[in-house]
Design a protein that fits this description.
Elements (H helix, E strand, L loop, with lengths): L8 H65 L3 E6 L4 E4 L1 H7 L3 H4 L18 H7 L6 E6 L5 E12 L5 E10 L1 H47 L6 H26 L7 E4 H16 L6 E6 L5 E4 L1 H18 L5 E9 L4 E8 L6 H6 L6 E2 L2 E2 L3 H11 L3 E4 L8 E7 L8
Helix pairs in contact: 5-6, 7-8, 8-10
Length: 415
């Protein structure tokens, strides 16, 4: 009909679709905004977790560095091995004790660097194979320079978080100084016991010895000088004198000594004592004695009487050992950098082998078929009383050289 508007059904349907689309768009936008909020929240939570993880990782790294520092700062050697007995850990103390660098040993078999006796070994490998831990086991190891040193070791298994065995480890200490201290203490007790005995023995020997010496002197006086028997009497008197000297040396070696130190010039004192030593032990001038002093003065705090005995006994030992015509050189020099005086006795006699050199300061040790007696052990004791050291130069190839190091006393007036 004219004047009446007809509605287009398609237009109405389009309008409905647009309304639905707008409604859906609004809902999607709201959902997107909610999702964005959730994403932002998750990002914040993730950042927080990352910060926590980073903090925890820093703490773990700090703990690892602290653990590594503790391992490296230990004075005890630490070595760890895996199931194949390859070394996996080797700390700085282990390097210092063994002489090996960790680059040499890491990843390589334990047995290449630590000698093992399979039947009796109580080390990390034995612990790995047996499951038994060992504590404070005394053993020896051979250093990289082939020097054998005593050690004390403790071993244990290494387990993972599931209590499964993944290797073994051992802690070990160089006990060289402890062993030397034990030997010194044992020597001290031995010397004290020997001192008690020697004083009694000296009393028992010297009483009849004095009588024998008196009768021998009378016998020598009564025998005519042209009588060949007089030579046997003189030999008897010499033997009595040697025996009396031995008793005196035994008492000097074993009795308690209370030194009285005062500062003196070692060169002056040494020269004076050597003059007397030649009269007493080399009256026939069998030895060619040379004195070589590298400095004008060598001040040291010494007990004068004990130092006299030191030089006398060094000279006596040389005179008894060296053949006629041999050279004996006494030298003195100083080491200002270490604040020590070096007193050297060297000769051109037979060169001692390393085993003999190690026995020179042992009482009555047998060296090359000859008895060492007590001269050098007495010297060693006197040197130690003076806070010094005495060694044999094993590199000296022209005879024997003994080096005595005494503390240097500088900037003083000598007596």
């Amino acid at each position: 009909m004219p004047g009446t508007e007809q509605k287009n059904p398609h237009l109405a349907e389009l309008v409905d679709y647009l309304k639905d689309f707008n409604s859906t768009t609004v809902r999607l936008e709201e959902s997107y905004q909610r999702m964005q909020q959730k994403v932002e929240t998750l990002n914040l939570q993730l950042e927080e977790k990352n910060r926590e993880l980073s903090h925890q990782l820093d703490e773990i790294n700090a703990l690892k560095r602290k653990f590594d520092n503790v391992i490296e700062s230990m004075r005890t050697g630490l070595v760890a091995i895996d199931l194949d007995t390859n070394i996996t850990l080797f700390n700085r103390a282990a390097e210092e004790i063994t002489g090996y660098d960790r680059e040499q040993v890491i990843g390589r078999p334990y047995a290449l660097f630590f000698s093992r006796e399979e039947a009796g070994s109580r080390d990390a490998v034995a612990t790995l194979h047996s499951g038994c831990a060992f504590k404070d086991v005394e053993d020896v190891i051979c250093r990289d320079d082939r020097v054998t040193i005593p050690i004390k070791r403790t071993t244990s298994l290494v387990l993972d978080d599931d209590e499964q065995i993944v290797g073994a480890m051992e802690l070990f200490d160089d006990i060289t100084e402890l062993k030397e201290l034990q030997r010194d203490m044992q020597n001290k007790y031995t010397v004290e016991a020997l001192g008690d005995m020697s004083r009694q023995v000296a009393h028992e020997i010297r009483n009849p010895l004095g009588g024998i010496a008196g009768f021998a002197a009378l016998l020598e006086r009564d025998i005519d000088k042209s009588d060949p028997r007089r030579r046997y009497v003189q030999k008897m008197i010499e033997g009595i004198g040697a025996l009396d000297q031995l008793v005196s040396d035994l008492l000097l070696y074993t009795r308690p000594l209370k030194p009285k130190f005062r500062t003196m010039d070692l060169i002056k004192v040494t020269a004076e004592v050597l003059a007397f030593a030649r009269l007493k032990y080399d009256a026939l001038n069998r030895l060619q004695v040379h004195q070589r002093y590298a400095v004008d003065r060598a001040p040291a705090r010494i007990d004068q009487q004990l130092y006299h005995e030191l030089v006398l006994h060094m000279f006596q030992a040389a005179a008894r050992k060296l053949p006629s015509g041999a050279d004996l050189t006494i030298g003195i020099r100083t080491e200002p950098e270490t604040r020590h005086i070096m007193l050297e006795f060297s000769d051109n006699g037979p060169v001692p082998d390393p085993e003999a050199a190690g026995k020179l300061f042992m009482p009555f040790s047998n060296i090359a078929g000859k008895n060492n007696r007590l001269e050098l052990p007495i010297v060693k004791r006197i040197v130690e009383i003076h806070h010094g050291s005495i060694t044999t130069d094993v590199t000296y190839q022209r005879g024997t050289r003994i080096i005595i190091r005494l503390p240097l006393k500088a900037d003083v007036n000598t007596g």
